[in-house]
Amino acid sequence: MPASISVHSDHSIDRISENIYGHFAEHLGRCIYGGVWVGEDDDRVPTEDGIRMDTVELLQDLDMPVLRWPGGCFADDYHWEDGVGPREDRPKRRNLWWAQGREERFIETNEFGTDEFLELCQMIDTDPYLAVNVGSATPEEALDWIEYCNSDADTDLTRRRAENGHEEPYDVTYWGIGNENWGCGGRFAPDEYADQYRRFANYLNGFDDHINPGSTEFIACGHITDEWNEAFFERLDGGMEFGPGTFLGMGSPYKLLDHFSVHRYYQAGDDADFSDEQHYRLFARAQKIADDIDSAAETISTYVPREDVGIIVDEWGTWHPQATPDNGLEQANTVRDALAAAGVFDIMHERADVVSMANIAQTVNVLQCLVQTDEENAWATPTYQVFDLYQNHSGNTAVEANINADKKYFDEEDHDVPLVSASASVGDDELFVTASNRSLDQTETVEVEVDETFGNPSGTVLFEEKGSRAYSTADNAAEFEADDITVSEADDGRFTVDIPASSVVGVTFTK
Ligand code: AHR
Q1: What is the DSSP string of 24-80?
Q2: Does the Cβ of 113 fall within 6 Å of ligand 1?
Q3: What parts of the chain have a pLDDT lower than 70?
Q4: What is the pLDDT of residue 246?
Q5: Where is the Alpha-L-arabinofuranosidase C-terminal domain (predicted)?
Q6: Which residue segments constitute the domains of the chain, with CATH numbers given?
Q7: Residue among 31, 67, 184, 363 to mutate when testing ligand 1 (max atoms within 8 A of CB)
């Protein structure tokens, strides 16, 4: 059966937040140290204030909307004051989570800290998202951090910021209150974390209220199980029966929660060496993000109008068996990973009414990175190209797209996988459709039906003839960039495009 995509441009879902194309960079392996920060004395790559500019240029070209830092698990054993001030005075500290017995990962040198991170965000014109230490620190430490970053009052901390070269506040909007607090972030029970969350958010929100109302947004750590999420929301009011959602609802002076986060990683077979069955199974596992979002949305809606609290998928992507703590969670990033990312974006577009942000793990060198580096080069992975293409949806209104395609069927553990994944959005006088053909070996002729006010299609394709197991290197990365593809007009609002096996297509229609 030939596949088809029927786009209903009058059936709007919601605006697609720019922030769903967000990133995550942790002090882990070579993500920050080596990938972003090489220090001022390194002359192997061009640097500015110790930051490697080849990585920065790739990230600048990507229009990255938001970057989460410093963890991950790292965050809940990190004390931000260790990383500010003259670099030669900064203490070396342990960090438990990415130590795993290996000396060089056990030691955090603190060369790269808050000011370096926020300068990086300014260089690449992205919004910072800071993850606060809840597991092993205090609300006072968190409050000091927000004051250091955002206050324009004359205080000891803002004077220190000025001495460190930053007179003006950074105005950081996004504050995550802990990370995976059911695990590395303190191993809290959900009701214990709700108590901690309320306590930390009370102080951070107090800063917001007194200093700069409405300028910050707070993110609670959720889980992919309903048990954790329900118990967290149940307890958030502290058992005081202030009324449903007192600490949640828009309009409440005590609104302590803006977003609720979930994480999802997946694998099937090895990074670049997988069976045909595993090729397809990876998409089935990535699709579980849809269930995670749907069940978190349902839980939230029990406690508060759903639009008051957005869902953030602030860690997602492939985590193959090759990525271990011993190699700094590095893995080959193939076309298969990139196809899985395209499918995840299709899922998020379809849920644009509830997803407020997403942050792929991780930006440079670690897990499903977008940029890889060696000592002299930085290059884009296939996943980078998917981000670049899909960001044309950014800020558009997601619209319904019904897909008719053959499926791969799995057992009960994994969902069936349609061989074509797609989504569509409407911007100013434009309709943008993305579609991927997940077949390992068959070109798929896809009929795209659009509202007849749209026409003049122009198409681009990623990964034509590369194959699912291909990955980029310093030498061949340009081969993974987009090419033009022909989109033919059939009749009255019907178009066809031959999507090559294991490739992704973007088609823009104009009025
Ligand atoms: O991204 C790697 C790790 O995965 C993060 O530190 C942690 O939050 C998650 O378990």
Answers
A1: E--SSTTSSBTTTB--TT--SS-EETTEEHHHHHHHHHTT--EEEES-SGGGGG--G
A2: no
A3: 99-105, 238-254
A4: 61
A5: 314-503
A6: 17-323+351-395 (3.20.20.80)
A7: 184
